[in-house]
Amino acid sequence: MPDDAPTVKQVATRGYGAEVILYNRNSIKREELAQSLAEERNLTVIPPYDHPHVIAGQGTAAKELIEEVGIDLLLVCCGGGGLLSGSAIACKSLLPNCQVIGVEPERADDATRSFHSKILQTVYNPDTIADGARTPSLGKITFPLVLQYVDNMVTVSEAAILRTMFLIWERLKIVVEPTGVLAAAALLEGKVKPQGRVGVIISGGNVDLTQVSKLFSSQTRITL
């Protein structure tokens, strides 16, 4: 994990029995570090998003939603594209006419640029509060899947992310992290025009509650 990862994420991971290795994300690429550790320790690297089984597992979020209620539009947050591509596959398989839109932070818009240009784009260490979307690019597997199954990609501002996160905390009483509200932010901020019944995937609750005051203070510094 990067050494600035939320403390709550580090503590919880150690609590599950894992060894957490911290690195400086400004000077080290996590993919290279993981591969180096795997070679040194004879370990297997399990990609967080660019693997068929991971994509299929993440796609069950959309599958379960659709099995409960029919939708016309599905909004999904996007980092490396595992959740988005898996959800899009599930959605198009069960509801072929349902539109699927992926959402990224404006400051980490590699997937959006990749989608519209049809050429894989990258971004290095983007400065966004949505730490789960700081992935450098879509994967070798997720990129073609996004092109095939996703209908559009949009981005949201840092201010929009914070506004949406605090609204969800306050109104829905759900503790959700910045990355997890990307899809909701696109809807609530008018970046996507609602059509019919809209499904929004809210995913991720790794918020360090001791840092909440800093989040509030950062919101006041962003032009709303």
How many extended strands?
A: 4
What about the largest sheet?
4 strands, parallel
Strand content: 5-15%
Tally of helical runs: 9
Report the average pLDDT across residues: 92
Condensed summary:
With 224 residues, the protein is an alpha/beta fold. Helix content is 44%, strand content 9%. Strand 1 (73-77), helix 4 (82-94) and strand 2 form a beta-alpha-beta unit.
Give me the secondary-structure topology:
Layout: H1 7-15, H2 30-41, H3 52-68, E1 73-77, H4 82-94, E2 99-105, H5 110-117, H6 142-149, E3 152-156, H7 158-172, H8 182-188, E4 198-200, H9 212-221
Helix pairs in contact: 3-4, 4-6, 7-8
Provide an overview of this structure.
This protein has helices spanning 7-15, 30-41, 52-68, 82-94, 110-117, 142-149, 158-172, 182-188, 212-221, and strands at 73-77, 99-105, 152-156, 198-200. It is α/β, with parallel strands linked by helices and 224 residues long. It folds into 2 domains: 7-41, no CATH class; 52-211, 3-Layer(aba) Sandwich (Rossmann fold), CATH 3.40.50. It has a 4-stranded parallel sheet with strand order 3-2-1-4, with helices on both faces. The protein is globular.
